[in-house]
Amino acid sequence: LYDIVDGIGRSVEGATQSVTGIFEPTIRLGVTGLSRAGKTVFITSLVANLMDRARMGQLKAASTGAIQTAYLHPQPDDTIARFDFESHLADLTGAEPKWPHSTRTISELRLSLRVQPSGLVGMVSGPKTVHLDIVDYPGEWLLDLGLMDKSYAEWSAETLARAQARQAGAAYLAALGVVDPSAKLDEPTAQRLAADFTAYLHAIRAEGFSDCTPGRFLLPGELDGSPVLTFAPLPQVERPSRGSLWREFERRYEAYKSKVVKPFFRDHFSRIDRQIVLVDALGAIHAGPQAVDDLRQSMVDILGAFRPGPNAWLSQILFGKRVEKILFAATKADHLHHSQHARLTAIMEALLRDAKDRAEFAGAATGAMSIAAVRATVEDHLQGLDVVRGARLSDGKQAALYPGELPSDPSKIIGAARDAAEKWLDAEYSVMNFAPAKLDLAPGEGPPHIRLDRAAEFLIGDRLR
Ligand code: GDP
């Protein structure tokens, strides 16, 4: 009943919003991706480049001059943190540029664009204001949707089976070995297990895997140490008694679903119009076939969240509302010479096609691209090789990177057997992180990028005409 009443409440709120929306249309753009995918850098560069637009030639409303001005405006939601645009931009563009602090939780920023619509309508109506509400949230939270229709027993069985197949799982399984799940709950034991399980999730994340539920274990925010984050998977127990470790972990798992996962989908996810999913595809390709296979599965899961049909409670929450466009973007393309960008894009397109088939996804327009929100390298030709050059993050020294070639046939990467040992980008790739380049920008000018303008055209271009 709560969901239905709540749904009605929100549809009234939605209706009022759309009445004001006639005069001042609003686009809610979700920006997500797993930790370190590049969300913070993307939003910072997108906003800076929309405010200035000198580097936004592929965004039609920018190149035609339809966007007259763009300025920051107080955001509509008073209880969500404001995306700290000014400090992030100062980090990137300062005398000693550094990468900004990454996304830890949800945040929001409103950029308002004064747009002169084209054609007859535009001549009559004059300029209009379009609000772009950018909502930044961790991709880990999105993957939690998969928990909603899984019981604690099912989630435990799946998670433990995967841990058994991985080296990183050994420590947690050893910790489990000395615990009796049917014994009475003992809080220090519960905390120890949760800590060991969290360490396991961090370890598999570092190896490039993305099946890291529950997502808040990695990014706990203000929930750190609370009972909803103090549980872990346990082997099945025949008729667990009340007060046992198993029963209490089951209860906490259910509380995590109803008090953490559900409110996020109800209050934030349900209001998104357009979505960009940033993917560190190069990192996964470097990590090897298992990580690529895992990335492909997480793209299926993410698309599943945008196709609520089979998920009854999500359909109810969304109340018929649908995301209109979803862009999957491989980030950090400036690690590759442009001669390889087409191959990276082809891999992303193949991953997306595969995910759409598996998720039987239809509806929203989808796209795949390779981008760099901030270009940290320049291209060079050394010893017959196409390389990229930049300042090494570790010591600031200039270094050139030639990570090897991506295969021209994406199926070589995507269809590879999970346990195949082949890697495509060489060992240099993982150690070669570049510092942001020192930029000599005119006042207000946005940082250099690769295809950020095309990404913006795909996501919001149609609403700025
Ligand atoms: P978030 O966790 O998704 O918010 O990720 P960030 O935006 O903080 O990015 C994580 C790291 O990826 C940064 O600190 C940079 O080292 C790197 N990075 C992100 N975007 C780019 C890019 O466009 N080019 C390059 N070379 N590195 C990037």
UniProtKB/TrEMBL annotation:
Entry superkingdom: Bacteria
Name of the protein in question: YcjX family protein
InterPro entries attached to this UniProt entry: YcjX-like
